């Protein structure tokens, strides 16, 4: 990207999505270590991994901040092994329940489709037991297209296609079933095609 480090890439009514700055490291470390945020992400990251991340490039993804500057979360736009765009996210617990996650993810999805005009679908994977995350993905207009066992837990994959995201119909309570996503058929993914969870989570 040609933006300066930390420059805003997307804005909403209440939030700014910007590139990560080195000064964000304390918040990122909290996201890696906090047992509440890591409950469905394999638990807190080890001290060894945190130490490695401190000295490596930890500036991937997008920090989500209120317009007044307080950080509320982090989003990551990456690639599945399937080739699909993939959205990952973590939000600080003290900001849960205020609609920031949905607002930020809507902006991130729009940014993804703007930056990658040839992509027709974006996916997200979460643990089935993570009901808060499942509700978020459904509120974003995404539909469940797959379920599988990975990392000793049942994972679910949700997807949204470009026309449905662009229509905005889902924001008004519209509904699509799994067959409405992508090429019209629920994808059957082999174990080798499973999306791996972003390293930065």
Oligomeric status: single chain
Q: What is the percent of helical residues?
A: 10-25%
**Low-pLDDT windows of residues:** 178-201
SSE pattern, N- to C-terminal? EEHHEEEHEHEEH
The class by helix and strand makeup works out as alpha+beta
Largest sheet, described in full? 8 strands, mixed
Give a written overview of the molecule.
The structure is a single chain. The chain contains five helices and eight strands. The model is unreliable at 178-201 (pLDDT under 50). Strand 7 (143-150) and strand 8 (153-161) form a beta hairpin. The chain has 201 residues and is an alpha+beta fold. It has helices at 25-33, 47-55, 100-115, 131-139, 162-167, and strands at residues 8-11, 15-19, 62-66, 71-79, 85-91, 121-127, 143-150, 153-161. An eight-stranded mixed β-sheet has the order 1-2-3-4-5-6-8-7, sandwiched between helices. It is globular and about 40 Å long.
Features:
single chain; 201 residues; alpha+beta; eight-stranded mixed beta sheet; 5 helices; 24% helix; 27% strand; disordered C terminus
In short:
The chain has 5 helices and 8 strands; from the N terminus they run E-E-H-H-E-E-E-H-E-H-E-E-H. By secondary structure, the chain is α+β, with helices and mostly antiparallel strands.
Summarize the topology.
Elements: E1 8-11, E2 15-19, H1 25-33, H2 47-55, E3 62-66, E4 71-79, E5 85-91, H3 100-115, E6 121-127, H4 131-139, E7 143-150, E8 153-161, H5 162-167
